[in-house]
Structures are given as C-alpha cells and as structure tokens.
Amino acid sequence: MLALPTGGRYSAPDGYFEEARTTSADDVLLQLREFGLACPQGHTKSPWPGHLDLAVRDKTIVHLSIEGEPFSISCKLVTSWPKALKLPFARPTAYGLGKSSWVTATFADDAKIPMQMLQDWIDKSYRAQAPQKTVATLPTK
Q1: Residue 45's closest CA among 34, 35, 56?
Q2: Mean pLDDT, residues 114-133 taken together
Q3: Do 92 and 15 meet the contact criterion of CB atoms below 8 Å apart?
Q4: Which DSSP helix (H) or strand (E) runs through 63?
Q5: Which is more confidently placed, 24 or 15?
Q6: pLDDT of residue 49
Q7: φ/ψ (deg, to 5) at 108
Q8: pLDDT reading at 38 higher than 60
Q9: Residues 44-103: pLDDT tens digits?
C-alpha cells in the first residue's frame, strides 16, 4: 500500500511505479484488460461508445477507454480513494461516481503509465464490486 507522509505527497514503495509504459497506451490498455479478465467471472461489457469495461456478473468493476482513444481507467477504491486523488493524473470519476469512491486516471500520450499501481487498483475495484462469495475465493491480500 502507498504511504502518505505529512505534507500530502505520495511516498510509494520501491517498484510501485515501475513497469512504466515502454509501449503504446493501447498496449497498456490491452494488458490491463487482460489482467482484469483473469479475475474469476470477469468479462467485458460496453455500456456506451468509447468504453469497453470490465465486469463481473454484468456489474462494472473497471471503466476502460478503448484502443485509439486517450487512455483512461476508472476504479472503485473504497479505502484508498483519498490517497489516489492526490496523484497528479487522478480525479473523482464523473457522473457522480466520484462520490461513491470511484477514481479516474488519465494519462497524456507520452506519459509513463504505472502498470503495477493500476493493476492494484483493478484488484481493489474487483474486490469492492464482485459478489462476496466470489471475492472469498481469492487469495487474501
């Protein structure tokens, strides 16, 4: 987990922001989608144009942009959303979802994307949104 020292800036564990993007944003998007689909009962759904989201039993766990669009990801971060919002690329998710601990991260085309951190966000969002019986089958964090 990330530690937030006094002063309000992030202090991440070594390696947390590693695996930064060395390929295109579309490649990162595909890797994150693959990571999310590996979750038990994970599948995609497309609730509106410009998104191919991750879901469990048709309940959205992660909002993802599509290839060719600016990269963005939205996750439900039940306990860590206040810390996440201190990151320069994060903001409360639109349409009132930010009030329910959803956080959106967007990155410029040339930005380094923190793959490990976003995988952690997907895991947290999955655990928050998936049925508890399904979550109980996962390894404890």
Answers
A1: 56
A2: 95
A3: no
A4: strand 59-64
A5: 24
A6: 77
A7: -65, 160
A8: yes
A9: 998 777 788 999 999 999 999 998 888 999 999 999 999 999 999 999 999 999 999 999
| Structure tokens belonging to residue 51 | 């998104």
Interatomic CA distance for residues 64 and 54, integer angstroms: 7
Q: Which two tokens stand for residue 24?
A: 């295109």
Please give the pLDDT value at position 109. 79
What are 53-60's contacts with CB under 8 Å, separation 24+? 54/122, 54/126, 56/126, 56/129, 56/130, 56/131, 56/134, 57/130, 57/131, 59/129, 59/130, 60/129
Distances (CA, A) of 80 to 5, 8, 75, 125, 133: 14, 14, 11, 11, 23
Unique residue bearing structure tokens 């947390």: 16
